Amino acid sequence: NAKRQGRNIVRCYDDSMLEVTERRMTLEVELRKALLNKQFILHYQPRINAKTKCIVGAEALLRWEHPTLGSLSPVEFIPVLEEMGLIHEVGAWVMEAACQQLKIWHNCGFSDFVLSVNLSAVQFRDIRLAQEIGDVINRTGITPKYLEFELTETAIMEDVAQTQATLALLKEIGVQLAVDDFGTGYSSLGYLRSFPLDTLKVDRTFVSELPGNSSDRSLTSAIIAMARSLSLHVVAEGIETQEQAEFLLEKQCDEFQGFLYSKPVDSKAFDVLLKSGKSLG
Ligand code: C2E
Ligand code: MG
Ligand code: MG
Ligand code: MG
């Protein structure tokens, strides 16, 4: 038919650009309905003690399950949510759901369990953030020190004066603060030292070629040593092999997270892992 032909002509004109635009439009239309249609869920990936291999906490990771588009990666849809301004609403849902789940695990007797939640740069810039976090903590009745927020280097280095102010408000509430994907952005060590951070997460790009790659060996050793000298708790992301874990343990990394121990799983599967009480090593 005519419509089909017209479309084909445009496709010949610039096939790849049209595909990108179409995909983007589809995502925007579908994302507007996703919260209401309950298509978001949280998955949880264990964080384990590097020595004992016991679960000490988890990172909450957002998943979007669409009936026809399938399961989409947050790497694809989070930037779209940010540009659409929808990240505030979705981020609020993430916090609420994460805190409710944390409360459940604490009530089951896992009283030291720490749950971390990712915040995007756009959420971090929102002046209502601290108030919103305080409200969700009060509503769900969790103890703030068991909730950790992960911020990327880029987010915290964007406007250091605002970062100081916001981090101070968050520390007043009593939550923990982590710098995520460390090493991939640009960080001033001077500022890093002045921020009230608790945890540093070493990006998995530094871990993936350990222990074979000598520059990655030097870099991860230096990052861990630096973090420890700033009294930061160090977590290595993306552990996939025993050799990576052994190297990082020797360098005194505190915690591990990665497919070697578990992929991110839904709350039911995580419950099974947690209640088995077994070490994942
Ligand atoms: P991230 O915060 O650095 O999360 C870690 C990512 O590494 C997750 O990808 C996780 O599945 C993946 N990962 C963990 N272990 C391994 C491993 O051993 N090997 C490999 N190859 N990958 C591993 P995921 O779930 O696709 O999330 C990607 C990014 O999306 C996150 O990176 C985070 O920046 C963002 N994101 C996820 N959930 C949220 C959220 O609720 N809010 C915001 N603002 N961003 C989120
Ligand atoms: Mg993270
Ligand atoms: Mg990360
Ligand atoms: Mg990452």
Automatic annotation (TrEMBL):
Annotated transmembrane regions: none
Record domain EAL: where: 24-278
Domain of life: Bacteria
Protein name in the entry: cyclic-guanylate-specific phosphodiesterase
Organism the protein comes from: Neptunomonas japonica JAMM 1380
Whole sequence portion shown: 424 to 704 of 704
